[in-house]
Amino acid sequence: MERLDKISDIHVHLGVSSGIYRAFTGEDILKFKETFNIQKIVLMSFERNVEENNRTISELSQKYASVFGLYWIQKSRIDKDIIALEKSLNKKMIGVKFHGYYEGYPVSAKCYQPIMELLSQKQGILLVHTGRYKDGAIESNTSYLHAIDVARNYNKVKVIMAHMGGSDTTIAKKAIVDSKELSNVYFDTSGITTPHVIEYALKYIDSRKIIFGSDEPWCSFRSMYYNIIDANIDDDSKANILYESFNRLVE
Fold first, then answer.
1. CA dist., res. 67 & res. 127, Å (int)
2. Domains and CATH numbers, the chain
3. Around Cβ 224, how many Cβ atoms within 10 Å?
């Protein structure tokens, strides 16, 4: 059990969201890391004050060896985001966070191609919010199918589907099966409320392609952690999900 206390968290938000009553400052995040003994943490902005939060995340990633960052991109400032990404993508600012609900477009939209091309050149990470809207149908801007399109078109981009492809058990199962042949698709566990999804995933994909994410402060770290601990899978797989998978992704 001791080795399962070693954790990397790939999905933690900085800032304020219009959707919840909790917020995380830089100081809160450092306390959060210490409280739960998180070895490595990946930060991304909430949907408000994005430009300011992107800067703060970049600063924190440079200051602390255990902090990594994802740059939240916005269609309204694509040209500026490209310039910022060209300067900031490195071993600590490791890629991009995309949220189709707030953008009003899917990640596969033509307007984001310059971002995807840059990520491909840098072999960076693209963490995509994948949701339950329209049961994951292609008509939804948050459908996992758009993430699969990007993964197929840009095979050097490491595409991570947040929420295991869509939070809902049925959608997550579809996302896992539909992408199992794509070597550059990964899944984060944030927002998953039953160990059954993790158990199901391991029937189709290697545990090294599943990465722990808490989605704090939107979700509860403890509930996300024990979702992995309570899964009926072997300890090696749990250790991969909780810590090793992220290490391999950025090594």
1. 16
2. 2-250 (3.20.20.140)
3. 22
Beta strands in 46-180 (DSSP E): 67-72, 93-98, 125-129, 158-162
Query: Are the beta carbons of 146 and 156 closer than 8 angstroms?
Result: no
What does the alpha-carbon distance between residue 173 and residue 202 come to, in Å, rounded to a whole number?
Answer: 11
Q: What is the pTM of this model?
A: 0.96
* Residue 125 to residue 97: CA distance in whole angstroms: 8
Look-up of token digits 């999900």: 241
Distance (Å, whole) CA 69 – CA 65: 11
Higher pLDDT, 251 or 17: 17
Give the separation between CA 236 and CA 105, rounded to whole angstroms: 38
Query: In a 10 Å sphere around its CB, with 0-12 CB exposed, 13-18 middle and 19+ buried, how is residue 189 labelled?
Result: buried
Alpha helices (H) along the chain: 26-35, 50-63, 78-88, 100-103, 113-122, 144-153, 169-178, 195-201, 221-229, 235-239, 245-250
What pairing do the DSSP bridges indicate for beta strands 210-211 and 185-188? parallel
| Tokens encoding 204 | 């189709």
Q: Average pLDDT, stretch 17-37? A: 92
Residue 196 has what pLDDT?
96
Confidence of residue 135 (pLDDT cuts 50, 70, 90): confident
Integer Cα distance of 204 and 98 in angstroms: 25
Strands 23-24 and 38-45: unpaired
In this structure, what token pair is assigned to residue 167? 């939070």
DSSP annotation of 156 reads T
